[in-house]
Design a protein that fits this description.
The complex is a heterodimer. Chain A is 23% helix and 22% strand. Chain A is α+β, with helices and mostly antiparallel strands. Chain A has one domain: Alpha-Beta Plaits (2-Layer Sandwich), CATH 3.30.70. Chain A is globular, with a radius of gyration of 10 Å. Chain B has one domain: Cytochrome p450 (Orthogonal Bundle). In chain B, strands 1-2-10-7-3 form a five-stranded mixed beta sheet, with helices on one face. In chain B, strands 4-12-11 form a three-stranded antiparallel beta sheet. Chain B has a two-stranded antiparallel sheet with strand order 5-6. The N and C termini of chain B lie far apart (64 Å). Chains A and B meet through helix 1 and helix 2 of A and loops of B. The complex binds protoporphyrin IX containing FE (HEM) and iron/sulfur cluster (SF4).
Chain lengths: 64, 445
Protein backbone atom coordinates (compact mmCIF):
# COMPACT_ATOMS: atom_id res chain seq x y z
CA UNK A 1 0.00 0.00 0.00
CA UNK A 2 1.19 3.53 -0.85
CA UNK A 3 -0.16 6.97 0.05
CA UNK A 4 -0.68 9.90 -2.26
CA UNK A 5 -0.87 13.38 -0.81
CA UNK A 6 -2.21 16.40 -2.72
CA UNK A 7 -0.51 19.55 -1.45
CA UNK A 8 -2.93 21.77 -3.40
CA UNK A 9 -5.98 20.30 -1.67
CA UNK A 10 -4.38 20.29 1.81
CA UNK A 11 -5.53 23.19 4.00
CA UNK A 12 -3.52 22.23 7.05
CA UNK A 13 -6.24 20.70 9.20
CA UNK A 14 -3.45 18.52 10.68
CA UNK A 15 -5.68 15.56 11.30
CA UNK A 16 -3.19 13.30 9.49
CA UNK A 17 -0.25 14.44 11.60
CA UNK A 18 -2.18 13.84 14.83
CA UNK A 19 -3.37 10.39 13.86
CA UNK A 20 -0.33 9.08 11.99
CA UNK A 21 2.81 11.03 12.93
CA UNK A 22 4.96 8.17 11.60
CA UNK A 23 3.52 8.76 8.14
CA UNK A 24 2.93 12.54 8.18
CA UNK A 25 5.03 15.38 9.49
CA UNK A 26 3.94 18.99 9.46
CA UNK A 27 5.88 22.04 8.24
CA UNK A 28 6.31 25.37 10.02
CA UNK A 29 3.09 26.70 8.51
CA UNK A 30 1.05 23.67 9.47
CA UNK A 31 0.85 21.94 6.08
CA UNK A 32 1.32 18.19 5.94
CA UNK A 33 4.53 16.61 4.71
CA UNK A 34 4.37 12.99 3.60
CA UNK A 35 7.25 11.14 5.29
CA UNK A 36 6.88 7.82 3.53
CA UNK A 37 6.60 8.18 -0.22
CA UNK A 38 7.23 4.50 -0.96
CA UNK A 39 5.52 1.38 0.33
CA UNK A 40 3.88 1.91 3.76
CA UNK A 41 5.22 -0.69 6.22
CA UNK A 42 2.40 -3.09 7.10
CA UNK A 43 2.41 -2.12 10.78
CA UNK A 44 1.59 1.48 9.79
CA UNK A 45 -1.10 0.67 7.25
CA UNK A 46 -3.94 1.06 9.71
CA UNK A 47 -2.73 4.47 10.87
CA UNK A 48 -2.23 5.63 7.32
CA UNK A 49 -5.82 4.63 6.52
CA UNK A 50 -7.04 6.58 9.54
CA UNK A 51 -5.34 9.68 8.15
CA UNK A 52 -7.09 9.12 4.81
CA UNK A 53 -10.49 8.70 6.49
CA UNK A 54 -10.20 11.84 8.59
CA UNK A 55 -8.83 14.40 6.16
CA UNK A 56 -11.64 16.94 5.68
CA UNK A 57 -10.25 18.03 2.32
CA UNK A 58 -9.86 14.57 0.74
CA UNK A 59 -6.20 15.45 0.21
CA UNK A 60 -4.88 11.95 0.99
CA UNK A 61 -5.60 8.79 -0.97
CA UNK A 62 -4.52 5.16 -0.81
CA UNK A 63 -2.95 3.66 -3.91
CA UNK A 64 -2.53 -0.10 -3.88
CA UNK B 1 10.14 45.91 -5.60
CA UNK B 2 7.01 44.45 -4.19
CA UNK B 3 4.32 43.11 -6.42
CA UNK B 4 2.11 42.04 -3.56
CA UNK B 5 -1.43 43.26 -4.03
CA UNK B 6 -2.00 46.24 -1.76
CA UNK B 7 -5.23 46.82 0.07
CA UNK B 8 -7.43 49.32 -1.72
CA UNK B 9 -8.86 52.29 0.12
CA UNK B 10 -6.65 52.01 3.18
CA UNK B 11 -5.39 55.23 4.65
CA UNK B 12 -1.84 54.23 5.46
CA UNK B 13 -0.58 56.75 7.99
CA UNK B 14 -2.58 57.18 11.20
CA UNK B 15 -2.75 54.25 13.58
CA UNK B 16 -6.47 54.92 13.78
CA UNK B 17 -8.45 52.37 11.85
CA UNK B 18 -11.44 53.52 9.89
CA UNK B 19 -14.48 51.46 9.16
CA UNK B 20 -13.36 48.38 11.04
CA UNK B 21 -15.24 49.07 14.21
CA UNK B 22 -18.59 49.50 12.48
CA UNK B 23 -19.67 46.08 13.63
CA UNK B 24 -19.20 47.17 17.21
CA UNK B 25 -21.58 50.12 16.93
CA UNK B 26 -25.27 50.03 17.53
CA UNK B 27 -28.12 50.93 15.25
CA UNK B 28 -30.08 54.00 16.28
CA UNK B 29 -33.23 52.01 15.72
CA UNK B 30 -32.50 48.35 16.46
CA UNK B 31 -34.32 46.07 14.01
CA UNK B 32 -37.12 43.91 15.45
CA UNK B 33 -36.64 40.14 15.38
CA UNK B 34 -40.13 38.66 15.67
CA UNK B 35 -40.59 34.94 16.38
CA UNK B 36 -40.15 32.61 13.40
CA UNK B 37 -43.11 30.57 12.15
CA UNK B 38 -41.44 28.77 9.25
CA UNK B 39 -37.71 28.09 9.32
CA UNK B 40 -37.56 27.25 5.62
CA UNK B 41 -38.77 30.69 4.48
CA UNK B 42 -37.91 32.94 7.42
CA UNK B 43 -34.85 31.59 9.23
CA UNK B 44 -33.35 33.80 11.95
CA UNK B 45 -30.23 32.57 13.76
CA UNK B 46 -30.11 35.53 16.15
CA UNK B 47 -33.20 34.61 18.20
CA UNK B 48 -33.20 32.25 21.14
CA UNK B 49 -35.76 29.92 19.58
CA UNK B 50 -33.13 29.06 16.97
CA UNK B 51 -30.28 28.68 19.45
CA UNK B 52 -32.29 26.42 21.75
CA UNK B 53 -33.51 24.13 18.95
CA UNK B 54 -30.82 24.34 16.29
CA UNK B 55 -30.07 20.60 15.79
CA UNK B 56 -33.78 19.88 15.18
CA UNK B 57 -34.10 22.84 12.82
CA UNK B 58 -31.04 21.71 10.84
CA UNK B 59 -32.38 18.17 10.56
CA UNK B 60 -35.71 19.41 9.27
CA UNK B 61 -34.05 21.72 6.74
CA UNK B 62 -31.60 19.05 5.50
CA UNK B 63 -34.48 16.65 4.92
CA UNK B 64 -37.03 18.96 3.48
CA UNK B 65 -35.60 22.15 2.16
CA UNK B 66 -32.48 22.01 1.91
CA UNK B 67 -31.55 25.65 1.12
CA UNK B 68 -33.58 27.88 3.44
CA UNK B 69 -34.06 31.63 2.99
CA UNK B 70 -35.18 34.68 4.90
CA UNK B 71 -35.88 38.28 3.92
CA UNK B 72 -34.41 39.36 7.26
CA UNK B 73 -30.93 40.94 7.19
CA UNK B 74 -31.68 42.21 3.68
CA UNK B 75 -31.90 38.63 2.33
CA UNK B 76 -30.02 35.59 3.58
CA UNK B 77 -29.69 31.94 2.48
CA UNK B 78 -29.05 28.90 4.67
CA UNK B 79 -27.83 25.76 2.86
CA UNK B 80 -28.23 22.97 5.42
CA UNK B 81 -26.51 20.05 3.67
CA UNK B 82 -22.82 19.17 3.80
CA UNK B 83 -22.54 19.02 0.02
CA UNK B 84 -23.75 22.60 -0.47
CA UNK B 85 -21.80 24.00 2.48
CA UNK B 86 -18.64 22.39 1.12
CA UNK B 87 -19.12 23.58 -2.45
CA UNK B 88 -19.82 27.17 -1.36
CA UNK B 89 -16.85 27.21 1.03
CA UNK B 90 -14.61 26.09 -1.83
CA UNK B 91 -16.06 28.57 -4.35
CA UNK B 92 -14.31 31.85 -3.62
CA UNK B 93 -15.22 33.31 -7.05
CA UNK B 94 -18.97 33.42 -6.50
CA UNK B 95 -18.92 33.75 -2.71
CA UNK B 96 -16.87 36.48 -1.06
CA UNK B 97 -15.72 36.69 2.55
CA UNK B 98 -16.08 40.48 2.62
CA UNK B 99 -19.06 39.88 4.90
CA UNK B 100 -18.80 37.04 7.41
CA UNK B 101 -21.18 38.14 10.15
CA UNK B 102 -24.77 38.51 9.00
CA UNK B 103 -26.11 41.72 10.54
CA UNK B 104 -28.92 44.25 10.39
CA UNK B 105 -26.68 47.16 9.43
CA UNK B 106 -26.06 45.90 5.94
CA UNK B 107 -22.41 46.08 6.89
CA UNK B 108 -19.98 44.39 4.52
CA UNK B 109 -16.37 45.19 3.82
CA UNK B 110 -14.55 45.51 0.52
CA UNK B 111 -13.00 42.65 -1.38
CA UNK B 112 -10.22 41.45 -1.39
CA UNK B 113 -8.98 42.72 2.01
CA UNK B 114 -11.99 43.37 4.23
CA UNK B 115 -11.92 44.69 7.76
CA UNK B 116 -10.27 41.73 9.53
CA UNK B 117 -7.75 39.96 7.30
CA UNK B 118 -7.53 37.08 6.55
CA UNK B 119 -11.03 36.01 7.58
CA UNK B 120 -12.67 38.80 5.57
CA UNK B 121 -10.24 38.57 2.64
CA UNK B 122 -10.59 36.96 -0.77
CA UNK B 123 -7.86 35.64 -3.09
CA UNK B 124 -5.24 36.65 -3.92
CA UNK B 125 -4.74 38.88 -0.86
CA UNK B 126 -6.16 36.26 1.51
CA UNK B 127 -3.18 33.90 1.28
CA UNK B 128 -0.72 36.73 1.97
CA UNK B 129 -2.53 37.84 5.12
CA UNK B 130 -3.07 34.25 6.25
CA UNK B 131 0.59 33.28 5.81
CA UNK B 132 1.56 35.89 8.42
CA UNK B 133 -0.45 34.00 11.04
CA UNK B 134 0.28 30.38 10.18
CA UNK B 135 3.65 30.16 11.94
CA UNK B 136 2.54 31.24 15.43
CA UNK B 137 -0.46 28.87 15.24
CA UNK B 138 1.25 25.83 13.71
CA UNK B 139 1.02 22.51 15.60
CA UNK B 140 4.59 22.71 16.83
CA UNK B 141 4.24 26.32 18.08
CA UNK B 142 1.01 25.41 19.81
CA UNK B 143 2.52 22.35 21.52
CA UNK B 144 4.81 24.72 23.43
CA UNK B 145 1.76 26.41 24.97
CA UNK B 146 0.30 23.19 26.36
CA UNK B 147 1.98 23.12 29.81
CA UNK B 148 0.86 26.67 30.66
CA UNK B 149 -2.66 25.90 29.42
CA UNK B 150 -2.77 22.81 31.63
CA UNK B 151 -1.70 24.88 34.62
CA UNK B 152 -4.43 27.44 33.85
CA UNK B 153 -7.05 24.68 33.79
CA UNK B 154 -5.82 23.22 37.07
CA UNK B 155 -5.91 26.52 38.90
CA UNK B 156 -9.40 27.25 37.54
CA UNK B 157 -10.58 23.84 38.74
CA UNK B 158 -9.15 24.46 42.20
CA UNK B 159 -10.99 27.80 42.42
CA UNK B 160 -14.14 26.29 41.01
CA UNK B 161 -14.16 23.40 43.49
CA UNK B 162 -13.72 25.84 46.36
CA UNK B 163 -16.71 27.80 45.06
CA UNK B 164 -18.76 24.62 44.67
CA UNK B 165 -17.93 23.51 48.20
CA UNK B 166 -19.63 26.66 49.53
CA UNK B 167 -22.68 26.08 47.36
CA UNK B 168 -23.84 22.46 47.85
CA UNK B 169 -21.54 21.31 45.10
CA UNK B 170 -23.20 23.51 42.48
CA UNK B 171 -21.13 25.73 40.19
CA UNK B 172 -21.53 27.24 36.72
CA UNK B 173 -19.05 25.35 34.54
CA UNK B 174 -19.47 27.84 31.69
CA UNK B 175 -18.69 31.00 33.63
CA UNK B 176 -16.38 29.55 36.30
CA UNK B 177 -14.35 27.29 34.01
CA UNK B 178 -14.71 27.08 30.25
CA UNK B 179 -14.98 30.78 29.45
CA UNK B 180 -11.68 31.69 31.12
CA UNK B 181 -9.46 29.20 29.32
CA UNK B 182 -9.39 30.74 25.82
CA UNK B 183 -9.34 34.27 27.26
CA UNK B 184 -6.19 33.57 29.26
CA UNK B 185 -4.46 31.69 26.46
CA UNK B 186 -5.04 34.34 23.77
CA UNK B 187 -4.35 37.23 26.17
CA UNK B 188 -0.94 35.69 26.85
CA UNK B 189 -0.22 35.20 23.16
CA UNK B 190 -1.27 38.74 22.24
CA UNK B 191 0.42 40.27 25.27
CA UNK B 192 -2.76 41.72 26.83
CA UNK B 193 -3.63 41.58 30.55
CA UNK B 194 -5.59 38.42 31.40
CA UNK B 195 -7.64 40.59 33.75
CA UNK B 196 -9.18 42.42 30.74
CA UNK B 197 -11.17 39.27 29.94
CA UNK B 198 -14.44 40.92 30.93
CA UNK B 199 -13.87 43.65 28.34
CA UNK B 200 -13.05 41.14 25.60
CA UNK B 201 -16.25 39.26 26.30
CA UNK B 202 -18.28 42.48 26.09
CA UNK B 203 -16.84 43.26 22.61
CA UNK B 204 -17.53 39.74 21.50
CA UNK B 205 -21.06 39.65 22.84
CA UNK B 206 -21.95 42.79 20.90
CA UNK B 207 -20.25 41.74 17.69
CA UNK B 208 -21.14 38.05 17.52
CA UNK B 209 -24.29 37.44 19.50
CA UNK B 210 -26.30 40.58 18.81
CA UNK B 211 -24.64 42.36 15.89
CA UNK B 212 -25.83 45.97 15.94
CA UNK B 213 -28.47 45.24 18.56
CA UNK B 214 -26.70 46.44 21.74
CA UNK B 215 -26.05 50.08 22.64
CA UNK B 216 -22.43 51.17 23.07
CA UNK B 217 -20.54 54.46 23.27
CA UNK B 218 -17.57 55.03 20.94
CA UNK B 219 -15.16 55.02 23.90
CA UNK B 220 -16.21 51.50 24.84
CA UNK B 221 -15.61 49.94 21.44
CA UNK B 222 -12.98 47.36 20.71
CA UNK B 223 -11.31 49.84 18.35
CA UNK B 224 -10.84 52.33 21.18
CA UNK B 225 -9.30 49.63 23.37
CA UNK B 226 -6.96 48.13 20.78
CA UNK B 227 -5.73 51.41 19.31
CA UNK B 228 -3.87 52.36 22.47
CA UNK B 229 -2.32 48.95 22.89
CA UNK B 230 -1.15 48.80 19.28
CA UNK B 231 0.47 52.24 19.49
CA UNK B 232 2.39 51.13 22.58
CA UNK B 233 3.76 48.10 20.76
CA UNK B 234 4.67 50.11 17.68
CA UNK B 235 6.98 52.19 19.89
CA UNK B 236 8.15 49.46 22.22
CA UNK B 237 7.89 46.00 20.75
CA UNK B 238 7.68 43.07 23.15
CA UNK B 239 7.71 39.34 22.62
CA UNK B 240 4.03 39.01 21.72
CA UNK B 241 1.75 38.68 18.71
CA UNK B 242 0.63 42.32 18.74
CA UNK B 243 4.23 43.47 18.45
CA UNK B 244 4.87 40.83 15.78
CA UNK B 245 1.96 42.08 13.64
CA UNK B 246 2.70 45.75 14.30
CA UNK B 247 6.17 45.19 12.85
CA UNK B 248 5.40 42.56 10.22
CA UNK B 249 5.86 43.23 6.51
CA UNK B 250 4.68 41.89 3.18
CA UNK B 251 7.66 41.70 0.85
CA UNK B 252 9.33 44.54 2.71
CA UNK B 253 6.22 46.75 2.87
CA UNK B 254 4.84 47.35 6.36
CA UNK B 255 1.23 46.30 6.89
CA UNK B 256 -1.32 49.10 6.81
CA UNK B 257 -2.65 50.17 10.23
CA UNK B 258 -6.06 48.84 9.19
CA UNK B 259 -4.58 45.44 8.46
CA UNK B 260 -2.70 45.32 11.78
CA UNK B 261 -5.81 46.35 13.68
CA UNK B 262 -8.08 43.98 11.76
CA UNK B 263 -5.90 40.92 12.27
CA UNK B 264 -5.43 41.62 15.99
CA UNK B 265 -9.16 42.20 16.44
CA UNK B 266 -9.74 38.92 14.62
CA UNK B 267 -7.38 36.96 16.85
CA UNK B 268 -9.02 38.45 19.92
CA UNK B 269 -12.54 37.70 18.75
CA UNK B 270 -12.16 34.46 16.82
CA UNK B 271 -10.72 32.33 19.57
CA UNK B 272 -12.76 33.14 22.65
CA UNK B 273 -16.48 32.42 22.27
CA UNK B 274 -15.71 29.67 19.80
CA UNK B 275 -13.46 27.67 22.11
CA UNK B 276 -15.55 28.52 25.16
CA UNK B 277 -18.55 27.12 23.32
CA UNK B 278 -16.78 23.92 22.34
CA UNK B 279 -15.55 23.24 25.89
CA UNK B 280 -18.92 24.12 27.40
CA UNK B 281 -20.93 21.95 25.01
CA UNK B 282 -18.57 19.03 25.63
CA UNK B 283 -19.05 19.37 29.40
CA UNK B 284 -22.84 19.58 28.88
CA UNK B 285 -22.55 16.29 27.01
CA UNK B 286 -20.42 14.60 29.68
CA UNK B 287 -22.75 15.75 32.45
CA UNK B 288 -25.54 13.81 30.75
CA UNK B 289 -23.44 10.84 29.63
CA UNK B 290 -21.57 9.48 32.65
CA UNK B 291 -20.51 6.46 30.61
CA UNK B 292 -18.51 8.68 28.24
CA UNK B 293 -17.05 10.51 31.23
CA UNK B 294 -15.94 7.18 32.73
CA UNK B 295 -14.52 5.98 29.39
CA UNK B 296 -12.39 9.11 29.11
CA UNK B 297 -11.12 8.61 32.67
CA UNK B 298 -10.05 5.04 32.03
CA UNK B 299 -9.21 4.84 28.30
CA UNK B 300 -6.78 7.62 27.38
CA UNK B 301 -6.38 6.15 23.88
CA UNK B 302 -9.85 7.54 23.13
CA UNK B 303 -8.78 11.20 23.34
CA UNK B 304 -7.78 11.84 19.72
CA UNK B 305 -11.12 10.47 18.52
CA UNK B 306 -13.27 11.92 21.30
CA UNK B 307 -11.98 15.47 20.80
CA UNK B 308 -12.85 15.36 17.10
CA UNK B 309 -16.27 13.89 17.85
CA UNK B 310 -17.01 16.71 20.31
CA UNK B 311 -15.97 19.13 17.57
CA UNK B 312 -18.17 17.40 14.99
CA UNK B 313 -21.25 16.99 17.14
CA UNK B 314 -21.10 20.35 18.92
CA UNK B 315 -19.39 22.43 16.22
CA UNK B 316 -19.99 25.98 17.43
CA UNK B 317 -19.25 28.08 14.35
CA UNK B 318 -21.44 29.09 11.39
CA UNK B 319 -19.73 31.45 8.95
CA UNK B 320 -21.17 33.62 6.22
CA UNK B 321 -20.40 34.75 2.67
CA UNK B 322 -21.68 37.46 0.34
CA UNK B 323 -22.84 36.38 -3.13
CA UNK B 324 -20.71 38.05 -5.86
CA UNK B 325 -22.23 36.75 -9.11
CA UNK B 326 -25.69 35.34 -9.87
CA UNK B 327 -25.38 31.68 -8.93
CA UNK B 328 -27.60 28.65 -8.40
CA UNK B 329 -27.25 26.29 -5.42
CA UNK B 330 -29.72 23.41 -5.70
CA UNK B 331 -33.05 25.11 -6.42
CA UNK B 332 -31.93 28.39 -4.89
CA UNK B 333 -31.17 31.29 -7.24
CA UNK B 334 -28.82 33.61 -5.43
CA UNK B 335 -28.16 37.23 -6.40
CA UNK B 336 -25.16 39.49 -5.85
CA UNK B 337 -25.24 41.06 -2.38
CA UNK B 338 -27.27 38.24 -0.79
CA UNK B 339 -25.96 36.79 2.44
CA UNK B 340 -25.26 33.06 2.67
CA UNK B 341 -24.75 31.40 6.03
CA UNK B 342 -22.37 28.42 6.08
CA UNK B 343 -23.70 26.20 8.87
CA UNK B 344 -20.74 23.87 9.43
CA UNK B 345 -22.59 22.44 12.48
CA UNK B 346 -25.47 21.29 10.26
CA UNK B 347 -23.05 19.89 7.67
CA UNK B 348 -21.44 17.89 10.48
CA UNK B 349 -24.70 16.10 11.22
CA UNK B 350 -25.61 15.34 7.62
CA UNK B 351 -26.36 11.60 7.25
CA UNK B 352 -25.11 11.81 3.65
CA UNK B 353 -21.64 12.67 4.96
CA UNK B 354 -21.42 10.77 8.27
CA UNK B 355 -22.54 7.33 9.33
CA UNK B 356 -24.99 7.51 12.22
CA UNK B 357 -24.69 11.27 11.99
CA UNK B 358 -27.07 12.15 14.83
CA UNK B 359 -25.30 9.83 17.29
CA UNK B 360 -22.28 10.86 19.36
CA UNK B 361 -19.75 8.06 18.73
CA UNK B 362 -16.87 8.60 21.11
CA UNK B 363 -14.35 6.61 19.04
CA UNK B 364 -15.62 7.53 15.56
CA UNK B 365 -12.98 6.28 13.12
CA UNK B 366 -14.10 8.17 10.00
CA UNK B 367 -14.63 11.78 10.88
CA UNK B 368 -13.97 14.35 8.17
CA UNK B 369 -15.80 17.01 10.19
CA UNK B 370 -15.96 20.63 9.11
CA UNK B 371 -16.01 22.33 12.53
CA UNK B 372 -13.00 24.44 11.51
CA UNK B 373 -14.37 25.22 8.08
CA UNK B 374 -13.43 23.91 4.65
CA UNK B 375 -11.23 25.36 1.92
CA UNK B 376 -8.82 28.28 2.11
CA UNK B 377 -10.22 29.84 5.30
CA UNK B 378 -9.65 26.74 7.45
CA UNK B 379 -9.45 28.06 11.01
CA UNK B 380 -5.94 29.37 11.63
CA UNK B 381 -6.48 28.71 15.33
CA UNK B 382 -7.59 25.10 14.89
CA UNK B 383 -4.45 23.58 16.38
CA UNK B 384 -4.70 25.91 19.35
CA UNK B 385 -8.43 25.36 19.83
CA UNK B 386 -8.04 21.60 19.62
CA UNK B 387 -5.24 21.67 22.21
CA UNK B 388 -7.31 23.89 24.54
CA UNK B 389 -10.35 21.65 24.21
CA UNK B 390 -8.35 18.47 24.86
CA UNK B 391 -6.45 19.90 27.84
CA UNK B 392 -9.59 21.49 29.35
CA UNK B 393 -11.46 18.19 29.17
CA UNK B 394 -8.49 16.07 30.27
CA UNK B 395 -7.99 18.19 33.36
CA UNK B 396 -11.72 18.18 34.05
CA UNK B 397 -12.11 14.41 33.91
CA UNK B 398 -8.88 13.88 35.87
CA UNK B 399 -10.16 16.04 38.76
CA UNK B 400 -13.92 15.50 38.63
CA UNK B 401 -14.92 11.91 39.31
CA UNK B 402 -18.62 12.49 38.76
CA UNK B 403 -20.95 15.40 38.04
CA UNK B 404 -24.41 16.11 36.68
CA UNK B 405 -26.50 19.02 35.41
CA UNK B 406 -27.78 21.02 38.38
CA UNK B 407 -31.06 21.56 36.59
CA UNK B 408 -32.67 18.23 35.67
CA UNK B 409 -33.95 19.59 32.40
CA UNK B 410 -31.01 19.62 29.94
CA UNK B 411 -32.90 22.15 27.80
CA UNK B 412 -32.72 24.68 30.66
CA UNK B 413 -29.21 25.57 29.49
CA UNK B 414 -29.09 28.84 27.56
CA UNK B 415 -27.39 28.50 24.16
CA UNK B 416 -25.82 31.59 22.59
CA UNK B 417 -27.61 33.13 19.63
CA UNK B 418 -25.85 34.22 16.46
CA UNK B 419 -23.13 32.46 14.52
CA UNK B 420 -21.26 30.99 17.51
CA UNK B 421 -23.39 28.54 19.44
CA UNK B 422 -22.58 27.10 22.85
CA UNK B 423 -23.95 27.04 26.40
CA UNK B 424 -23.54 30.42 28.08
CA UNK B 425 -24.61 29.15 31.52
CA UNK B 426 -23.99 25.59 32.62
CA UNK B 427 -24.82 24.97 36.28
CA UNK B 428 -23.51 21.55 37.31
CA UNK B 429 -23.43 19.65 40.58
CA UNK B 430 -20.05 18.13 41.43
CA UNK B 431 -20.60 14.67 42.92
CA UNK B 432 -17.00 13.73 43.58
CA UNK B 433 -13.67 15.44 42.94
CA UNK B 434 -10.00 15.58 43.84
CA UNK B 435 -8.53 19.07 43.47
CA UNK B 436 -5.52 19.02 41.14
CA UNK B 437 -2.10 19.79 42.60
CA UNK B 438 -0.10 22.68 41.16
CA UNK B 439 2.53 21.14 38.87
CA UNK B 440 5.21 23.46 40.23
CA UNK B 441 4.79 22.18 43.79
CA UNK B 442 7.50 19.71 44.84
CA UNK B 443 6.00 16.24 45.04
CA UNK B 444 6.12 13.84 47.97
CA UNK B 445 6.42 16.57 50.62
C1 LIG C 1 -13.34 25.45 18.79
C2 LIG C 1 -12.88 26.63 18.48
C3 LIG C 1 -12.94 27.24 17.10
C4 LIG C 1 -13.78 26.97 16.05
C5 LIG C 1 -14.91 25.95 15.99
C6 LIG C 1 -13.38 27.84 14.96
C7 LIG C 1 -13.98 27.85 13.70
C8 LIG C 1 -13.55 28.57 12.64
C9 LIG C 1 -14.12 28.48 11.32
C10 LIG C 1 -15.30 27.61 10.93
C11 LIG C 1 -13.41 29.30 10.50
C12 LIG C 1 -13.61 29.45 9.00
C13 LIG C 1 -14.10 30.78 8.61
C14 LIG C 1 -14.60 30.85 7.19
O1 LIG C 1 -14.73 29.85 6.48
O2 LIG C 1 -14.92 31.97 6.79
C15 LIG C 1 -12.39 29.92 11.32
C16 LIG C 1 -11.47 30.84 10.86
C17 LIG C 1 -10.51 31.43 11.65
N1 LIG C 1 -10.28 31.19 12.99
FE1 LIG C 1 -11.26 29.86 14.15
N2 LIG C 1 -12.33 28.61 15.36
C18 LIG C 1 -12.02 28.27 16.66
C19 LIG C 1 -11.00 28.81 17.42
C20 LIG C 1 -10.09 29.72 16.99
C21 LIG C 1 -8.96 30.21 17.74
C22 LIG C 1 -8.57 29.73 19.14
C23 LIG C 1 -8.33 31.13 16.97
C24 LIG C 1 -7.08 31.92 17.26
C25 LIG C 1 -6.92 32.71 18.20
C26 LIG C 1 -9.03 31.21 15.71
C27 LIG C 1 -8.67 32.03 14.66
C28 LIG C 1 -9.22 31.97 13.40
C29 LIG C 1 -8.74 32.76 12.27
C30 LIG C 1 -7.59 33.75 12.30
C31 LIG C 1 -9.55 32.43 11.17
C32 LIG C 1 -9.47 33.00 9.76
C33 LIG C 1 -8.74 32.08 8.83
C34 LIG C 1 -8.77 32.54 7.40
O3 LIG C 1 -9.68 33.25 7.00
O4 LIG C 1 -7.84 32.20 6.65
N3 LIG C 1 -10.10 30.34 15.76
N4 LIG C 1 -12.50 29.46 12.62
S1 LIG D 1 -5.58 16.14 7.26
FE1 LIG D 1 -5.68 16.66 5.11
S2 LIG D 1 -5.89 18.86 5.03
FE2 LIG D 1 -5.20 18.29 7.02
S3 LIG D 1 -2.99 18.51 7.00
FE3 LIG D 1 -3.50 16.41 6.58
S4 LIG D 1 -3.62 16.33 4.39
FE4 LIG D 1 -3.73 18.47 4.92
Amino acid sequence: MRIEYDRDACQGHNRCYLLAPEVFDVDDEGYAVLRITGEIPSELEEKAKLAVDNCPEYAITVVQ
Amino acid sequence: MSNAPQPPGTSGSAATPDGDSDLDLTLLEPVEHPPVEDWTTDLDHTISDYAQNAPEIWAELRDECPVAHTDRFGGCWFPARHEDVSSIAHDTENFSSRGIIVNDMGFRGESPVGFAPPITSDPPFHQIARKLLLGPFSPKAVAALEPATRETCRSLIREMLAEAADNDGVVDAATAYSQHIPVRVIARMLGLPETDGEKFRAFIHRILEKPGQVAVTPGETMAAYLEGVILERVDEPRDDLISYLAHADIDGMPLTPDHVFGSIALLLIAGIDTTWSAIGASLWHLAQNPRHHEQLRTQPELWPFAVEEFLRFYAPVTMARVVQEPVQVGQAEMSPGDWVLLPFPSANRDPEAFEDAETFVIDRQKNRHAAFGLGIHRCVGSNLARMELRVALQEWVAAIEAFELADEDPEAVRWATGQVRGPRELPVRILGATPPQPTTQPTGA
